Fold this sequence. Notes:
The active site is at 137 (nucleophile), 229 (charge relay system), 299 (charge relay system). Residues 198-314 form the LD-carboxypeptidase C-terminal domain. This protein is an alpha/beta fold. The chain has 2 domains: 11-178, Rossmann fold, CATH 3.40.50.10740; 183-324, LD-carboxypeptidase A C-terminal domain-like (Glucose Oxidase, domain 1), CATH 3.50.30. 29% of the residues lie in helices and 23% in strands. The strands form 3 sheets. Strands 8-15-14-9-10-11-12 form a 7-stranded mixed beta sheet. A 6-stranded mixed beta sheet has the order 4-3-5-6-7-13, sandwiched between helices. A two-stranded antiparallel sheet has the order 1-2. β3 (40-44), α2 and β4 (68-71) form a beta-alpha-beta unit. The two termini are 20 Å apart. The relative contact order is 0.14. Mean pLDDT is 93; it is low at 1-27.
Amino acid sequence: MQKYGLFVRKVNSCFGFRNLQVDLVNLKMIQPTYLQKNDTVAIVSTARKISLPEIQPAIELLKSWGLKVVVGETIGFEEHQFAGTDAQRTADFQKMLDNQKIKAIWCARGGYGTVRIIDKLDFTEFKKNPKWMIGYSDITVLHNHIHNLGFQTLHATMPLDVEKNQKKALNSLKKSLFGKPISYEINASEENKTGKTEGILVGGNLSMLYSLLGSETSIKTDGKILFIEDLDEYLYHIDRMLMNLKRNGYFNHLKGLVVGGMTDMHDNAIPFGKNAKKIILDIVSEFNFPIVFDFPAGHLKDNRALVFGRKVELEVSEEKTSIKF
Length: 325
């Protein structure tokens, strides 16, 4: 361990990283520093508009954890559906990226819009002083982009959802931010595919993963465990998106698949003939990796925190599923 500690210090020194912890399993994935009391969290919106009263419960939650809060200018901005113009959202987010006092950026809500600003952002200062990026849904754009830069992120609930979230979801966010161990054990779904595996956890919202294919923000899934979830989609859209992922090699060397909430799915007047679970099983039927359904993450009240970019052990049995970070 002494040799490892010396190696970490040399890595941090060579690349200008300060106060970082390097993942023992995969040295390429850098973990931002865990939060401590009196650290500062920024709340911004990279996508849809949102008001200050809507995020007030989240502000109070962070303060109850002993944290300070900086509210971005995009909270209250409005440009049609968006939280301000692309330029305004870019500037607000860039300001938080570059501020060394900010230890985490909590995206206020999803919707649509993060992809419109991702190529305008400069992550130079972030690489020197990385911070936790928190959110889900449309924030998948940031998770994937930052993953390709070599850093861990936190797929978790957002300020808009705090009032309706279950305590288990909020507690998992707190534990993840403050460096407490997290692991999950859930009941088995009959559609699960049993097995035991391990790998770096990646993924996010299926629609966003689909939309990022072919860009520099698209992730590599070889040797990794993929998490997916989605909301308010037609079943044939789910089939189309998964077929595109398959044709792009997403499943060829995958170690495991974790499926979160496939919430409020729609069908046509002429039924597609399969629900979301059967569509997934059909498309990946030729592959031999464990599959978990009904994991509590995504557009759900019980939206548990997941650390993307960190190695997990996944065990799926006929009785239960366990995920250990």
